[in-house]
Amino acid sequence: MTAKIDLQPAYVLHTHPFQNTSLLVDFFCLDYGRIRAVAKGARRPKSRTRALLQPFHPLLVTLAGRSELKNLIAVEGSVNAFNLQGPRLFSGMYLNELLVRLLHFNDEHTQLYQAYQQTIIGLHGDRDLSQLLRCFELELLNSLGYGLNREVDCNTGDTIEPDALYLFHPDIGFERILGSVENRSNNPGLFSGTEILSLSSSNPEDKATNNAARRLTRIALQAHLGDKPLVSRELFLKQRES
User: Fold this and answer.
1) Bridge-based pairing state of the strands 33-39 and 70-77
2) C-alpha closest to that of 57 among 29, 21, 82, 74
């Protein structure tokens, strides 16, 4: 990897105290993916850098260093950070946590970066929250090489049929099984063919489609996140209960 990165578009995903006055920062960069850097002196009370290193703030960063851990040389903020509140704030935290948990360092994800940026802009507006998150989750899975084939049976290659019942396997896709859609159990991994086919439309007004998409992406992501719970999800649930 190059020793110096100049004026790279980036967002802050996560920060952590480092030594006495510095921060370890995980950036999501347009051309370099997830990069970790030391922001020296960023925890000092009057540090300009500290004020800029906020989530959801479009930045231009200059980084240097020959190892995987870089040094933050300069940071610029061309516009103000997006002021997310309530469920939209927790949704933004959720996006950041997914990227920290699932992206390897220094792997380019240009298309995913653009999807992330558009999702953050959407969170700041009034677009349907569920649709925004599901679209990003599907793009994340595609970028990681775990894209979901929603057109054919994973075993036979037959086209998905609307009236059939399918079991979703995170690693291989949808398998047709015996049984009727009307009498299916409460297994979250069971989907009707109609639900699978409707996922491509991502109609925000269709509650059934949104519910199916939520079940699908949760199962698919959990296979790669492991047993460790998502902190952002737990915080959101606690906020709703309070």
Assistant:
1) parallel
2) 82
pLDDT reported for residue 229 = 87
Tell the residue number behind the tokens 């009057």, with chain if given.
46
- The answer to whether residues 22 and 91 belong to one domain is no
**Residues 135, 111: Cα–Cα separation, whole Å:** 13
Condensed to tens digits (0 to 9), the pLDDT of residues 197-238 reads 988 665 545 777 888 889 999 999 999 998 888 888 887 776
Number of domains making up the chain? 2
Give the CATH number, domain containing residue 154.
Answer: 1.20.1440.120
Please indicate, yes or no, whether residues 191 and 216 belong to a single structural domain of this protein.
yes
Q: Do 56 and 120 form a contact (C-beta atoms < 8 A)? A: yes
Range of the domain at 10: 4-77
Cα–Cα distances (Å) from 39 to 5, 26, 65, in that order, read 15, 10, 13
